Automatic annotation (TrEMBL):
<dbReference type="InterPro" id="IPR013123">
    <property type="entry name" value="SpoU_subst-bd"/>
</dbReference>
<keyword id="KW-0489">Methyltransferase</keyword>
<dbReference type="Pfam" id="PF08032">
    <property type="entry name" value="SpoU_sub_bind"/>
</dbReference>
<protein>
    <submittedName>
        <fullName>23S rRNA (Guanosine(2251)-2'-O)-methyltransferase RlmB</fullName>
    </submittedName>
</protein>
<dbReference type="InterPro" id="IPR029026">
    <property type="entry name" value="tRNA_m1G_MTases_N"/>
</dbReference>
<dbReference type="Pfam" id="PF00588">
    <property type="entry name" value="SpoU_methylase"/>
</dbReference>
<dbReference type="InterPro" id="IPR029064">
    <property type="entry name" value="Ribosomal_eL30-like_sf"/>
</dbReference>
<dbReference type="InterPro" id="IPR004441">
    <property type="entry name" value="rRNA_MeTrfase_TrmH"/>
</dbReference>
<dbReference type="GO" id="GO:0008173">
    <property type="term" value="F:RNA methyltransferase activity"/>
</dbReference>
<keyword id="KW-0808">Transferase</keyword>
<dbReference type="GO" id="GO:0032259">
    <property type="term" value="P:methylation"/>
</dbReference>
<dbReference type="InterPro" id="IPR001537">
    <property type="entry name" value="SpoU_MeTrfase"/>
</dbReference>
<dbReference type="GO" id="GO:0003723">
    <property type="term" value="F:RNA binding"/>
</dbReference>
<dbReference type="GO" id="GO:0006396">
    <property type="term" value="P:RNA processing"/>
</dbReference>
<feature type="domain" description="RNA 2-O ribose methyltransferase substrate binding">
    <location>
        <begin position="16"/>
        <end position="88"/>
    </location>
</feature>
<dbReference type="InterPro" id="IPR029028">
    <property type="entry name" value="Alpha/beta_knot_MTases"/>
</dbReference>
<dbReference type="GO" id="GO:0005829">
    <property type="term" value="C:cytosol"/>
</dbReference>
Amino acid sequence: MQGGRGSGRASAGAVRLWGRHAVEAALKNPERNHRKLWATREGVASLDGELPPDFPVEYAQPADLARLVARDAPHQGLVLDCDALEDRFLDEVMQGDPARPLVVLDQVTDPHNVGAIMRSAAAFNAAAIVTQDRHSPPESGTLAKSASGALEVVPWVRVVNLARALEEMAEAGYWRIGLDGEGKATLGEALPAGPVALVLGAEGDGMRHNITQHCDAIARLPMSGAVESLNVSNAAAIALYALAVRPQG
């Protein structure tokens, strides 16, 4: 078998995914162009549904598959090379159901966090994840594994200028709520009944000043004070739940 250990980039324009949930979701996604599946026979048997008869599969031992992915990555007998997903655009996702929130990430660069946030976005029916192209992780196997299949179902919009994207959201009628522990209002107090764009900053630094200036409200989670802060992916999950259960006026 050929191929080197890595974070999930197989070659230019391609992504290497691993793990049952990530691979299975990618195989079911009609928007994915699949290149090749390396797998154990047990890995293929674990998939929900059968592969097409002509699907390119190379059977291998688990140790061989381990050489294709990041060190100690739990590949579960499945490694898939496929093309990266096509770009998604902000105007198209804002044409959908206005009750579905947008999740805006300002310089959240850890692929585990972005993947976990994407999983919560799928669970709570968010319309899309929006990031700035230069300050967010690439599509990768690590991110897809953390997203547990959500990478294939939650649109990921990459923009050049995040502040300008927030302006476009306001023009489309979205109320932009930045989540910050120093917010005077709690998230529940700040939530409107209409469309919402939830804005979260990187751990430690939080939102940049320019991004804060483009929010209509800054809100905090009503925490007890027993801990100073939450991981950004945990905070996103709680905020998305609050959005999902808010009264609709």
